[in-house]
Amino acid sequence: MSGHEQFAEDLALYALAALEGEERAALEQHLAGCAACRLELEQLRGDGALLALSAAGPKPPLRARQRLLDALAKEPRTAFPARAQNTRKDGAPLSTDKYSEPRRSWWGILGWAAAVAVLVFATSLWKENAELKREVITWRGQVGQQALELDAAEKFVETITNPEGQHFTLVAGKTPPQPQGKAFYLKSRRSLVFLASNMPALPPQKAYELWLIPVKGNPIPAGLFKPDANGSVTITNPPLPAGTEAKAFAITVENEAGAETPTMPIVMMGAGE
Amino acid sequence: MALKSGDQGAMAVLYDRYSSVVYAVALRVLGEAAAAEDVLQEVFLQLWRNPGAFDAARGSLGAWLAVITRNRAIDSLRKRRPETDIEDCVVSVAPDLAGDADRARAAEKVRSVLGAMPGPQRDALQMAYFEGLSHTEIAAKTGEPLGTIKTRIRSGLMVLRKAFQG
What we know:
The complex is a heterodimer of chains A (273) and B (166).
Chain A: H1 5-15, H2 21-32, H3 35-53, H4 62-74, H5 101-109, H6 111-161, E1 180-186, E2 191-197, E3 206-214, E4 220-225, E5 233-236, E6 246-255, E7 266-271
Helix pairs in contact in A: 1-3
Chain B: H1 8-30, H2 33-49, H3 61-77, H4 100-116, H5 119-130, H6 135-142, H7 146-163
């Protein structure tokens, strides 16, 4: 958190959704470009989870379990093969599907099938248990991996933004430099690097906003930015939802605090190459 | 997780393992059994509809469910639309919270740490976490300066974190 102390207290409030107004907007803008603070935010949420654990009370009423299973049965999901998982500890069927009665007699007749299904269930439980135990170990490895990535990203950004660095812009003869942006997006890691050059200066109290245009759904804000004196811009790893397939990226001009939906016109746009 | 394939049996196992945590958090925030049960349903239905929202590589399911539940319960308490998408909620927590015994040990430790905190700090932390009050509202309620409330909340969380490190 070195160098980010001014945001430390706001970050704690933000993790508990207790930060409001301008402070919240300022912090969100900072988070968009600061991987270290995003990591700290995840840890602060974890600290909050510990606090949640201090809540003690009665177990949920038994009917709540049945209510959930009833609701699941009505949910449109991919059909799953018949399975013995639908058996509670007391042996009663989990599913409340009234049409499942004939299936029970099948299980009575085909004992071997039930045995296979029980084996599948046991394997599934064993796998899940192992997975849960691996969570913490994986998380620890993840922190180390993120530190390495952060180091690489900082070096990358420094090469581009350090005032001592030499910049070369190659254009065709007699062509005036045009605004150009390049977005590098890695869906599996929710990682985004955006570089732009020759961006026109903005009117006062305005900022550019980058949008991820998903294959399905509404545009997702992917960072607010103002170009430097040379019209250059770098955005790295803004907070993005997991697993979003990007169809394109676009840029609009918004108020400095940013917008939830893009304000027309789109000033720049590019589809995946 | 089998859940990702739409397996109701896997969901029943997860429910049996985590429903007591989810319900306890919801009940603590809402103080009313029927409302807590509604949040319990909502949280598990969301997990069912969108199991990919939880990334096992980035945290413990128990901790994630506790945070999601707290957020949903606060939204319900304050009668507002959900503020945070569950996919955006990444939770990193050090202790292993997968088993009942692990969670019981952690809960006992948290209560002990809270018990040892100065009263005003504990109150600020609990007002923010379980009542969903903003720092401005806590300052107005306690008559303390905003900066003091901010400091108390952050340092309270740091005390908790430290208790589980090393």
